[in-house]
Amino acid sequence: MSSMRDPSVPLSAVSVSLKTVAAQEIRRRIFSGELRPGDRIDQEEIAESLSASKLPVREALIKLEIEGLVELPPRRGAFVARLSRDDVRDHYWILGVVSGLAAAHAATVITDAALNRLDVLLDRMAVTGSGPAREALNFEFHRVINRAAGSRRLIAALRVLGSAGPHGFYEAHHDWPETADRDHREIVAALRARSVSAAGGLTEAHFLRGGNRAVEMLGSRGFWLTADQG
Hints:
With 230 residues, the chain is mainly alpha-helical. The chain has helices at residues 11-31, 43-49, 54-67, 85-109, 112-126, 132-149, 152-164, 169-172, 176-192, 196-220, and strands spanning 70-71, 79-80. A hairpin with a 7-residue loop joins strand 1 (70-71) and strand 2. It is elongated and about 55 Å long. It starts with 10 loop residues before the first helix and ends in a 10-residue tail after the last helix.
């Protein structure tokens, strides 16, 4: 990413964009286990890696402090919050509950065109590895369902929850695609059957499995500081 700004783009828009990118990168490092609870976050290194100034990184850290991922003690810098296993599970659980509500709503109103779009995405995911391309397809899959629900309130809540969650999940969890493919196909089958309870329950369970997988992966990398953290 270039540090040169296009003069035709308002500075505020550039700042927001860089802040978002910086927040995503810090989240990725935390949820991949590169940064662990209590670790100091090197703001200069992150800014340099993104070809950005320290300002958007600082803004990103403030946002992440609100999310509970980062601690910013006065005049001491930035540190990864001492997350517990339950903190990670709870995030996925909340995301799963709201996503499940969206899927339940979608089951009654989703169009054939949207269902066909989901089939196309499933086929593409089946032949895509575990990198950023897979991540993008997964994002689009759930977005189609969320939009089909037609609830502005649910979509707004999911936008906030989704942005606060880990990015790069498929990069960190190379054994997840097979499980995700199975879950996704079951969810689409429930939507086609117009089963409100199945669509909602399968979606919620899908995110819960993702949370448990994230906890296992982080544990295998020595993320948790003490045995009593969750």
